[in-house]
Specification:
- The complex is a heterodimer of chains A (about 325) and B (about 325).
- Chain A is α/β, with parallel strands linked by helices and about 325 residues long.
- Chain A has nine helices and eleven strands.
- Chain A has a six-stranded mixed β-sheet with strand order 5-4-3-6-7-10, sandwiched between helices.
- In chain A, helix 2 runs antiparallel to helix 9.
- The radius of gyration of chain A is 36 Å and the shape is elongated.
- In chain B, strand 3 and strand 4 form a beta hairpin.
- Chain B has about 325 residues and is α/β, with parallel strands linked by helices.
- The longest helix of chain B is centred in the N-terminal third of the chain and has 58 residues.
- The chains are: A alpha/beta (about 325), B alpha/beta (about 325).
- Chains A and B meet through helix 1, helix 2, strand 2, strand 5 and helix 4 of A and helix 1, strand 4, helix 3 and helix 8 of B.
């Protein structure tokens, strides 16, 4: 949005019509010699309208437009942007997402579990404007994809890059939780939360989920554990990232709700089961409403002065007039 | 628009041809007026014309001069402004071009930079760090985060192999780093650049101006010596040019100093034994608002002074022409 820092300066624009009158229309103006210039009983001299008149008119127009712009520049033109600044620290949230093969099961219409989870996570994160969000992926191993950050665009990029089977075909829930705890425990946030999404049982890694939960509890980190999908037979289709080949078939299996419940209880979090995309969305809505931090906001106004552009434009127009009158029309004064 | 655009002063050169046109027109005008006015009034009109031409031209030149000075954006004096920021976000921008492997700073420019970054992360508790690297292009590697573990782990991976694009595009680096600061945090923001400053491409100055306009200071750390050294390779040989001569890479602080100055930051040299303490102190002081509790000082722009004078001279230039003197001209 454009503003003027000193709009009162615009009053100087009233001098422009006075200047136009004095310079172009006042009969008593200087810079000219009066003498009779017509034949006996003839009409007076009237200059022919043509290119010179057009140039003269264009020059005068540019001059007064340029002068007006300089007056506008004196009034301090600037653009302002408003930024919402949070006065208090939000919470740190670490999303721990299963990347094992079973996440390709297509029981979350129209997506598979993995894509449904990513879609709901994206919506969840978009609403946590003042909360730092990080991402850990796990399969047979676990890896930090993005540390807790307010740069949610970086989080989205990392989430979009995740692929099923990237970290092996196992389900190392304990290791995934441990990596998340490692990167959260030094955080100064008053509230630290891990959201664990898995559809399998812990069958890889050397750390038990309950052990990781104990460490999380000591670091005052709550874990919200979400079990994904149905336990009956469901169609599955996936692409092996190593070979690029696509496979299809059916899958039957489920998550270990007792482990997930236990992890949640140890840390003071909560356990949820989400058999469908809609159910998963309501689970995240619940977490969203449970885990809130008071938000105090200040609107910060940033001013970006634009006088330089306006001055250069005005100056350019006036120089254009000078060149027309003095160089092209050869005016002597 | 905090820093003056001194390059605009070159516009003053345009006044020379304008003055030449005025002089040419004066000579032609004097001759023509002598003919038109006739013998009776020629001398008087020519005298008035001389005075009017002189003052009209003088006021026009003064108008042009002060308009250009106004557009430059000079400022002097400082005013206290209430400081509403707290906390510090730092994006570390590291040059990973091959010349950073040079060992004129032990163990190497890159290794020494890595040590300094780790030291900053360790000492500046409460600050949040992000990491970007640049070569021919720039990449945001770690978003701004409080997670020092991930920053520390990432430092092990710093190497010229991270980016394949050849060159050292500092402008892209600064712009990438600028894009990494999360909005709405109300924190002090700074970019700490580690580079040997050699063969930098892109308009880093323009990027530094953008940083300044967004309130981001740049602290430059020049890695290497002006004398320079060869660039070692993994097999124990050194990088050679097309003629087989060893390539000597020399640290160049020109651009690094320029970006620091334009953004209101500072320059440090990796060869300085006290570089870590100086850098830490500089960044820390900035992060607590320059040591002035609750306030910071801002330069007062003075373009209105010059622009006001310019408009006054434009008015005088018009008056010289419009006001008829001695009822003659």
């Amino acid at each position: 949005m454009w503003i003027l820092e000193r709009p009162a300066m615009l009053l100087l624009l009233f001098t422009v019509p006075v200047g136009i009158y004095l310079r172009h229309f006042w009969r008593g103006r200087g810079g000219k010699i009066r003498f009779p210039f017509h034949v006996w009983r003839g009409s007076g001299f009237v200059p022919e309208s043509g290119l010179l008149s057009v140039l003269h008119g264009a020059g005068a127009f540019c001059f007064w437009l340029g002068a007006s712009l300089l007056i506008v520049a004196l009034a301090g033109p600037a653009t302002v942007t408003r930024e919402r600044v949070y006065l208090n620290r939000g919470m740190d949230i670490m999303i721990v997402l299963d990347q094992s093969l079973s996440m390709a099961a297509e029981d979350m219409t129209p997506n598979n579990r993995f894509d449904a989870a990513r879609s709901i996570i994206r919506q969840f994160v978009a609403k946590r404007e003042n909360d730092a969000v990080g991402l850990v992926g796990f399969g047979s191993e676990a890896a930090l994809r993005v540390p807790p950050t307010l740069d949610h665009a970086a989080f989205d990029r990392a989430l979009n890059k995740l692929k099923i089977l990237d970290l092996g075909d196992g389900t190392a829930i304990g290791v995934g939780l441990s990596v998340a705890v490692l990167h959260l425990q030094e955080s100064s946030a008053t509230q630290k939360v891990i959201v664990l999404l898995t559809d399998g049982v812990n069958n890889a890694g050397e750390i038990l989920p309950e052990t990781a939960a104990e460490v999380a509890s000591q670091a005052r980190i709550k874990v919200f554990a979400i079990g994904l999908g149905r336990s009956d037979e469901v169609p599955i289709e996936y692409t092996d990232p190593r070979t690029g080949q696509t496979y299809g078939g059916t899958y039957k299996g489920g998550f270990d709700d007792s482990v997930l419940r236990s992890v949640a209880n140890i840390t003071g979090g909560a356990y949820f089961a989400a058999a469908s995309e809609g159910a998963l969305a309501s689970v995240f809505r619940s977490i969203d409403s449970i885990e809130t931090v008071e938000r105090r906001v200040r609107i910060e106004v940033h001013t970006n002065p634009k006088y330089r552009t306006i001055i250069l434009l005005g100056l350019g127009l006036i120089v254009f007039d000078i060149l027309i009158r003095r160089w092209a029309l050869r005016e002597v004064l | 628009m905090n820093s003056p655009a001194v390059r605009l002063l070159l516009l003053l050169l345009a006044i020379i041809p304008i003055v030449a046109i005025l002089i040419r027109n004066y000579r032609a005008g004097r001759r023509d007026l002598g003919v038109i006015a006739g013998r009776g009034q020629a001398r008087e009109i020519q005298n008035v014309y001389l005075v009017k031409s002189f003052f009209g031209g003088l006021f026009l030149v003064l108008f042009l001069t002060f308009s250009v000075l106004a557009s430059v954006g000079f400022s002097w004096g400082q005013a206290p402004v209430e400081e509403d920021r707290s906390g510090l976000d730092i994006v570390v921008l590291v040059d990973v071009s091959r010349s950073m492997l040079s060992q004129d700073v032990k163990p190497s420019r890159l290794d020494r930079s890595r040590d300094l970054i780790r030291g900053l992360v360790r000492e500046l508790t409460g600050a949040r760090f992000g990491v970007a690297v640049f070569k021919g292009s720039a990449v945001a590697e770690i978003p701004v985060t409080e997670d020092t573990v991930s920053i520390d782990s990432f430092m092990d991976f710093l190497s010229p192999q991270m980016i394949t694009t050849p060159g050292s595009n500092l402008e892209d680096g600064i712009r990438t780093a600028l894009g990494m600061f999360p909005p709405g945090t109300g924190r002090f923001r700074t970019i700490v650049v580690f580079s040997d400053g050699e063969s930098l491409s892109g308009d880093a100055g323009a990027a530094a101006d953008e940083a300044a306009s967004e309130g981001v200071k740049i602290f430059s750390v020049v890695a290497g010596t002006p004398e320079g050294s060869t660039i070692p390779l993994a097999d124990g040989t050194v990088v050679r040019d097309a003629s087989g001569q060893p390539v000597i890479t020399k640290a160049d602080s020109t651009v690094m100093n320029d970006i620091a100055q334009r953004s209101g930051g500072d320059l440090f040299r990796l060869t300085d034994p006290a570089v870590f303490a100086s850098l830490l102190n500089g960044v820390h002081r900035y992060g607590v608002g320059g040591g002035e509790a609750g306030f910071h000082l801002e330069s007062i722009p003075r373009y209105r002074f010059f622009l006001g004078l310019a408009l006054a001279f434009l008015l005088l230039h018009l008056a010289v022409r419009v006001v008829r003197w001695r009822k003659l001209f």
